[in-house]
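User: quick one, sequence for these tokens?
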């Protein structure tokens, strides 16, 4: 990215806790050995199945990097940033060329100068060089600020749309994968990247409200 560095979504996962209260059931001796264990196993399997179904339907994620790179506004913002950066750097380059020409002229004529003229010219060149260095630092800072501003614009759009989509479809949580191993595996149905990217671009391009 421009260099877009998006912080991945950070969410805390809350695990469900099940507290089982033991119940004493008086079965005939022959039933205690078979029926009770089977009943407990059946209940555990039922609870596990329900919990697994709920977890599977609620735990979804998006690939943050794919959203950033696939978002149409990213391309536009990146192009605008690169144009600004190119213009700012061109100003620095132009001043640098002027200073180098003046330095070459001084080196060419210095043999004809008096000691006082040499000192004055050297002082003048040093001052211009310092001013140029200071200006270059200011420009680099401005470029970094423009980069951060452009990046944040894209990130804010994505965050807002993911939040909107999650509320609209009643998701309790949407994880953000950044490729750093925070999500090691998920089935295809848990990946909302494509559908959210389509909605994000449709909203940006004015195809939906």
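Assistant:
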């Amino acid at each position: 990215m421009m260099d877009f560095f998006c912080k991945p979504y950070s969410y805390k996962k809350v695990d469900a806790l099940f507290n089982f209260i033991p119940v004493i059931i008086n079965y005939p001796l022959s039933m205690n050995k078979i029926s009770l264990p089977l009943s407990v196993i059946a209940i555990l399997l039922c609870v596990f199945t329900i919990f697994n179904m709920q977890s599977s339907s609620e735990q979804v994620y998006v690939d943050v990097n794919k959203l950033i790179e696939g978002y149409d506004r990213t391309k536009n913002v990146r192009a605008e940033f690169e144009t600004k950066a190119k213009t700012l750097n061109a100003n620095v380059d132009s001043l640098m060329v002027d200073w180098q020409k003046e330095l070459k002229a001084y080196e060419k004529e210095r043999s004809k100068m008096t000691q006082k003229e040499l000192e004055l010219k050297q002082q003048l060149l040093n001052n211009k060089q310092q001013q140029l260095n200071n200006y270059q630092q200011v420009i680099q800072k401005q470029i970094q600020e423009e980069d951060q501003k452009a990046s944040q614009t894209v990130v804010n759009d994505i965050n807002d749309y993911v939040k909107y989509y999650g509320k609209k479809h009643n998701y309790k949580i949407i994880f953000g994968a950044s490729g750093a191993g925070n999500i090691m595996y998920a089935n295809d149905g848990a990946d909302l990247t494509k559908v959210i990217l389509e909605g994000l671009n449709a909203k940006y391009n004015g195809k939906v409200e």
